[in-house]
Amino acid sequence: MITIKKKKNSRALKDAVEELSGVDLSVCYQCKKCSGGCPVATLTQSRPSEIMRQLHLGAGDELLASDLVWMCVSCEICSARCPMGIDVAAVMDALRRLAIERGAPKPEGNVPLFNRAFLKTVETFGRSYEIGMITAYKLGTGKLMNDTEKFPAMLKKGKIALLPPRGGDRKTVKRIFRKIKERKGAKA
Amino acid sequence: MRYAYYPGCSAESTARDMHQSTLVVAKALGIELQEARGWTCCGATAGHQTNRLLAVSLPAANLAKVQDMKLDMVVNCAACYNRMKVANHEILAHSEIRQGVRDALDRDYDGSVRVRHLLEVLLEDVGLPTITRSLKHSLNGLKVACYYGCLLVRPPGVVKFDDPENPKSLDRLVTAMGGQSLDWPCKVECCGGGLSLSRTDVVINLTGSILDMAVQSGADCIAVSCPMCQSNLDLRQQDINKQTGKNYRMPVIYITQLLGLCLGFGPGELGFEKLMVPATNVLKKVNERA
């Protein structure tokens, strides 16, 4: 059984998700093939087919706190196998964007922080810079010591670059980030 | 055979071995790779999880550069390959996205650059007969579990790469090199991708079951063509061993490294020293002349 917990005045997510993802949620007939193939469905409280059903039944912003939203690995098995051709992975992307926009509670592991740290290095250097990103992410989470035992071996093997990347067209990338921010500002 | 080459950010850091072996193999097989000048990040998973237009504009900046070179784009990183293909698809399918990209890049890009994975170039343009003729060594029956992961084959309607459930590109190369490509069920399973740092527990769970199946299938090594798959499967083995008491020592090798060995190059030229789990068993087998 699927239960929807809905707060009063909470906006239904369905329209926003359909608009952002271009998906028609009503064609899902709950065959659960997406959940069957999902590599993390055994680790999460909620499964993709349940998220689809809850959206369809009018779930509100509470759904953005589902653990699957940030544990989804974007492997796209769900989209590839859906008999109705629903891009379930695009629905998950839409939920993540809405979770950020609407200030949903921070998930365990803080993937949004990781994404921000990653994109910040891209905005700065034009290319991603792993050590910069890892440092920013670790400072943000406070878990400084995770994985540090691997760094000496990785550096020695040349398995990770010490210095920031050079040679990328930073100007164009900065412009892209600026334009996206302007757009968001105009929309709000 | 001339192509515009997009190395991707990993090529300069965690996947230098992929980059290095790609260049060596390409040169030996007459594939001319011209690096796209000023190439930038494709946005990866962080990009498409954050903003749709950002996720299309970042790859499009590179596709536009390649359009000026009047060449097809060759990518070896499965994740970058996927983002390039999706960007073309989005631009062709949605005029408002194309308009948004034009505004972001300050130039128009029509979605028409042909994006190829290196495996497609090897199998379709160079061809197995030419590759086979160029081989100096054999894999000598090495048992290889070919692992494709997610982004090379999905979404199938967009990437149109091989069979999405049972791809054979890597297997065909391994067989041509005299290896034994294994029939195993994890070819297109997920390694956990970009969750490596943020949800290491999830990655350990997923890579653990892939490694377990590779061991059970009798694999001597796993062959990959994606830097994310390589680093999750290779780098996380010591964590899995520590946390679960297993004792995996499964080398996870780029297909270009295996091909390079068979073309007669030494492990040093192909970045073998960068693997966290050493490929000693593989090197020994290949060097024994049959």
3D architecture notes:
Chain A is mainly alpha-helical and 188 residues long. Chain A has ten helices and no strands. With 290 residues, chain B is of the alpha/beta class. Chain B folds into two domains: 2-118, Glutathione S-transferase Yfyf (Class Pi), Chain A, domain 2 (Up-down Bundle), CATH 1.20.1050; 137-287, Rossmann fold (3-Layer(aba) Sandwich). Helix content of chain B is 49%, strand content 10%. Chain B has helices at residues 16-28, 44-50, 52-69, 78-93, 95-105, 118-126, 128-134, 156-159, 169-176, 200-216, 227-235, 237-244, 255-262, 280-287; strands spanning 2-6, 32-35, 73-75, 115-117, 143-146, 180-181, 221-224, 252-254. In chain B, helix 1 (16-28) packs across helix 13 (255-262), helix 2 crosses helix 3 and helix 4 (78-93) packs across helix 5 (95-105). The mean pLDDT of chain B is 96. Chains A and B meet through helix 5, helix 6, helix 7, helix 8 and helix 9 of A and helix 2, helix 3, helix 5 and helix 10 of B.
